[in-house]
Amino acid sequence: MPEEYSDAVLRSPQAHQRAGVPIQQRRLSEIPRHILRVSCRRCDRIVEIQAADAVRLYGPHAIWKDVGMKLLDNGCQQRTGVREDDGCWPSYEHP
Of 5, 23, 57, 91, which one has the fewest beta carbons inside 10 Å? Predict the structure, then answer.
């Protein structure tokens, strides 16, 4: 392998991400996507936000799981009738 290739790989943004960490546990500043999407597995509601807007509203150190839960915080549209506060079941997808 040429030395330039390995240097380019080490300089890439993906090389600085935490390896093996699921996207929902990463900080917003560590996610290289332009659009972030979270959906509810129960009611199929989908919420998208631009990564720049998420960073501006919640800060670069906010965890995507926490931000996604806040975006789905209005309550699930599919109620079971067992509890009034049963909320969405988040799924963090690739847009």
Answer: 5
pLDDT tens-digit profile, the chain (95 residues): 677 777 777 676 665 555 577 888 899 999 988 999 999 888 888 899 999 999 999 999 999 999 998 988 866 766 665 655 567 788 887 65
Task: Locate the domains of the chain by residue range.
Answer: 20-93
Structure tokens at 84: 């009034």
Q: What are phi and psi of 36, to 5 degrees?
A: -110, 135
Please answer whether residues 90 and 72 qualify as being in contact, where contact means their C-beta atoms are separated by less than 8 angstroms.
yes
State both tokens at 20.
Answer: 């093996």
Rounded Cα distance, 2 and 68, in Å: 42
State if pTM tops 0.85. no
